[in-house]
Fold:
Amino acid sequence: MAVKRMDNVGIVVEDLTASIAFFEELGLDLEGRMMVEGEWAGRVTGLGDQRVEIAMMRTPDGHSRLELSRFIEPATIADHRAAPVNALGYLRVMFAVDDLDDTLARLNARGAELVSDEVIRFEDAYRLCYIRGPEGILIGLAEEIG
Structure:
């Protein structure tokens, strides 16, 4: 087998502090925050000289991580935050939650908005919705029914 696990999903943000607070409200834990810079980092990304502040967020089960990155140098060059769900590339990150209504209430207080005007029911298995989180990041939320 070639793959042992998926370590993390990376998302580039402008306001790292607000993004950390949002994902903490969702239930993720801040594992660490640091500056990544130097010749080795630029070789990995192909960006050359770079300075990036990152925060690693961990899901409560400890199996998944979300890496939030704020590029200081070089500046970001594209903005996909308002892209619709059928755009090529990154779509969304999906989280399983235990109480969708409570989660939505807490995240709405931090600026989250439903993509459509409703939470939908998928058969007798899930209640689902997409929200736009900090900076328009598309996030899926799913609550198991039963």
